[in-house]
């Protein structure tokens, strides 16, 4: 899919719930697809970013070159609660670019109402969010460009994310 005629440049962001309920094994499996996602983004001259959330939200910033040290600092399993800082989430937006986000969560986000409102507003401005929810069906609303419930199987989750990115975003 990539860019549509008249569409802004598009970046790619992987958002990963790193709370204890997601489990470290699943987090590590998703972490292992980051080099592939970065390479895919780089081929299309997209910036790439990683956002993780648990008790704190961390964002790598928009990267144009692969920085394993920086990504390693952001991609840490926190294993605590689950709150997504909506100020950081809203800060992903740029006046001249849109983004495609791929989010993995188990849907147990403490500030869910604020997150849904932020995602909805972002989608209305042309950003696309694909959500992979582990085992639970959560009513994310009409803003999600893609919504899929995935089993608690690390290999199946990796496969689903990569399939979505290849089939839908590139």
What are its keywords?
170 residues, alpha/beta, Rossmann fold, six-stranded mixed sheet, 6 helices, 6 strands
Description:
The chain has helices spanning 24-31, 34-43, 68-74, 86-90, 112-124, 154-169; strands at residues 9-17, 48-53, 57-59, 97-105, 128-134, 146-150. The radius of gyration is 14 Å and the shape is globular. It is 35% helix and 23% strand. The chain has six helices and six strands; from the N terminus they run βααββααβαββα. It has a single domain, classed as Rossmann fold (3-Layer(aba) Sandwich), CATH 3.40.50. It is of the alpha/beta class. Strands 3-2-1-4-5-6 form a six-stranded mixed sheet, sandwiched between helices.
The N- and C-terminal alpha carbons lie at a distance of: 5 Å
Share of β-strand residues: 15-25%
Overall form:
globular
The CATH architecture can be given as 3-Layer(aba) Sandwich
Give me a quick take on this structure.
With 170 residues, the protein is α/β, with parallel strands linked by helices. It has six helices and six strands, in the order βααββααβαββα. Helix 1 (24-31) packs parallel to helix 6.
Write the layout of secondary structure elements.
Layout: E1 9-17, H1 24-31, H2 34-43, E2 48-53, E3 57-59, H3 68-74, H4 86-90, E4 97-105, H5 112-124, E5 128-134, E6 146-150, H6 154-169
Parallel strand pairs: 1-2, 1-4, 4-5, 5-6
Antiparallel strand pairs: 2-3
Helix pairs in contact: 1-6
